[in-house]
Structure formats: structure tokens, C-alpha cells
Amino acid sequence: xxxxxxxxxxxxKRPDSLRAFFVVAFMFLLSGFGYAQKFSxxxxxxKLGVNEIYSITLNAQDASLDDYGNFPNxxxxxxxxxxxxxxxxxxxGKVSQxxxxxxxxxxxxxxxxxxxxxxxxxxxxxxxxxxAKIIVGPALDNRNSDPYxxxxxxxxxxxxxxxxxKNQPEAKADAFFSIKSDKEEIWAGEGFTITISFLVxxxxxxxxxxxxxxxxxxxxxxxxxxxxxxxxxxxxEEIEQRKLKIGKKGYTEYRIYQATLFPQSPGKIVVxxxxxxxxxxxxxxxxxxxxxxxxxxxxxxxFSIKVKDLPAHPMKGNTAVGSxxxxxxxxxxxxxxNQGIGYDFTVKGEGNISYIQEPSALKSGLMDIYPPNTQQxxxxxGGRVTGSKVFSYLLVPKEQGNAEIGxxxxxxxxxxxxxxxxxxxxxxILNVVKGKAASARSSARSEDSFYSLIDKVDHTEFSLExxxxxxxxxxxxxxxVMALVSIVLVFVKR
Length: 494
Prior knowledge:
The chain has helices at about 1-10, 15-35, 155-165, 215-225, 450-455, 460-494, and strands at about 40-45, 45-50, 55-60, 75-90, 95-105, 110-115, 120, 125-130, 130-135, 175-180, 185, 190-200, 205-210, 230-235, 240-245, 250-265, 265-270, 275-280, 295-300, 305-310, 320-330, 335, 340-350, 360, 365-380, 385-395, 400-405, 410-415, 420-425, 430-435. It is α+β, with helices and mostly antiparallel strands. The protein has four domains: about 1-35; about 35-145, Immunoglobulin-like; about 155-310, no CATH class; about 320-460, Immunoglobulin-like. Residues about 1-35, about 140-175, about 285-290 and about 435-470 have low confidence and may be disordered.
């Protein structure tokens, strides 16, 4: 080690050594602040019924999951598909985001199973988990047994495809390639889910394997994906198999790609027939003589989707499209004149959550409404995109009496269930009273400054956020100082 150091450092002049010193110190400083990007692995409930789902979740805080390794296999369990979720929070101008990839597992039988320690490489970093002991008991009568049960708006569209849809493909061979949409007709802005998979019959005698699937899939998606579409990808990173039936015939489905697309313009989307090349080895004359390998193309069926134009409306083109409900949460309903209170306006449902715009606010003599902080949560599971967007307002009532929030705040969207524009209005009514020292100021109007009123708001949430931020800064500074001291000691010894 010392010999190596002699080869490197004596050749450097003093200014270069000093420059190297600051470069290394700066790198340590950057690494300290970069530590704010956190990755973690969360394990599911270690006790569950044989009909319930076990999950492993990969989380990223203020960082994207651009590159991550495969989830582990669990003895006694079968992988039951992946789902993803994301959340965004804007608080006082600071934006934080969290992304999650959830791997689901279905137990095959009752008993005690061991998930060995494992690691997953995420964006070049290696995350380690100690594993867990999982106890699988008798079946439980609840909805958690369905890996897609987190979606309250419907079933897996692929199940519908093989059961009830009109364009069900005919299984003329022992295996076939499928590209399918869960809808044939939608409104502009409404989502439809595209699923790409390869299905092999249980009666198939040929040996089939995927051939250059990554490059093939990239080209297929490029050709079938319409322009001017917002995409919510379900993040299938490894091909997983699942059993299903088409009529009375059993198949194994290998799902390759799934995403919900939201076209913004009316018209007709045409998905052409596509080919997927597979490597096949003949058996009993199905592909030729046994032992002879060949690349065989499998073709999907072409189909189209009609995208209907929205009816005329003043806010057409600037509203979300889907099925939504309003959940409201006032900090309290009895308030004092000129005292700010918190109020959460939450839009929840199925649709393009990212496209949900801020509610409309009217100027009112009853209250002042200040721009909200926002928090967004998106779940992609079961072939559906669901979630919520929370708008956290500061409301300042200005007159004594009853103040209806719905007269000052509302949200317009296009309801795909009714085929009409709809409005979500708060039902909360504030009871505004005079405080002990408020009567002299009861005539205050909109010219009152937000900053002069902010001291009347509950600071609990503000304080927690500021405290976390300050702690993180001091933590990073401590790391940088220790790194600098260590480097200085190395130079002094030399």
C-alpha cells in the first residue's frame, strides 16, 4: 500500500496536491448532501393466510428508480406480478417525491418459510435485506388475497380479456402472441390499458424460449404507442408467468409489458398486428424434427380504439377526465375571524392523476384563500391507474357567521360514467365567531397580509419539516468536516 502511494503522490507538486485535496474534500461534501436521496427495502407482513399476498417493496425518496435488479425468489411462493406507485409533495415551494416498486408473492401452501438475506442493486447502489421468516396459515376471508385488490375500481383487464371481451383471440396454435386493450372506445383524456404478453398452452409439446426480447419489445412499443399520449407504465422489469384458462384450455401467460395511456386528442387509434420472434425446438413434428432450433414469428391481431371528443364546455381541454370523488378535511369547523385554518381538498379516483389541476377559487368577502401546497399519490396495479391529489389550503375567514367553503372553492372534471362535465364542491360550513381580541379587527379585509396572519396558524407541520431539513444539513456538514479532517491528517503524516 505504501509503495503504491509513493508512486502516485511524489510526482505531484504542492499546488496540485492542494488542488487534489480540495477536489477530494468537495467530493466528500457532495456525497454527504447526495445522501438525501434514500433507497430502502420494506418487507410485508410475516404472518398471512394461504390466500393472501406477501410483498417486497423497493422505495426511492427524492430519486428515480432508473435501474434496479431482480427481486428474490421465495421458497414456497410464486411471483404474482409487480405494481408501482409514486407520490409527490409540494410544501412551501419545496418538492419531495417517492417512488415504489412492489413485488407480490402468492404462497403455494401452508407452513413456515424462510426468505434468505438478499440484496438488490439500485442505481449503482447495493441495498441489503436481512430476510425474514414467513408463517403461512389457513385461508382468511378477506380481500387481500387478490394481488390487485388495492385497486377499488375494477378487476385486472387481462382477466376480462380472456373472459368476456369481444375481441378474444382464437387459440389456433399451442402458443400465441397477444397485444390487447381493455377498452374499445374512450373519451379524449380517458385512459386505456395496453398489455403485451405471450401465452403457451398446457398441451404444447414444443420447447419455446424468448429471443432478444428486450430489443423486440422496444421496437413493438415504439410502433404501437400513439403520439400525444401520457403514459403510466406498470414497470414490468422481468417476465413472470401466471396460470389462466381460455375456455376449458389451460395456458401459461408471460406478461411482458403493461401501461395505461391517456390520449389527449379525439380520433382513431390503430394498433397494427405485430410479430414476436421466439426460439423454438421442434417436438413431434410441431416445429419440425426434434432437436432442430429455429426462430419462429408469432403474430398478434390488429385492433383499433375510438377516442371520442369531449362535449363543448368553457373548461374543455383544461380538466381531468375520469371517475373522481372529493374528500375534504378541515382542521376544525369553529373558527375565529382573521385566524387562519388548514383545509385539505382531496381529489381521489381513477384517471390521469398527474393531470389533475388546482381547484378554482373565487374571490369572496367571506374568506381569503391562499395558494395550496400539494401532495400526489399514484398507484398502478390491476391494469388501472388510481390515486389522489391533496391540495392543502390556508383559509382566513373575514366575517362572523356561517361560511360555506363550496361557495369559494370548487373543482371541475369530465365524468366518464355520466359522459358530462361535473363539479366537486366542498360541503363543509365554517362557524365563524369573534375571538376575545378579534372584535377590534373584525373589519379586516383581503388587504391583510398572509405573512401577518401566518403566526395564527398551527405550526406543527411547518416545524417538523424545518427541523428535518435542518437536521439533514447539520448531518451533511458533519460528514464533510470528518472527511476534511481525515484528509488533513493524511497530508500531515506525509
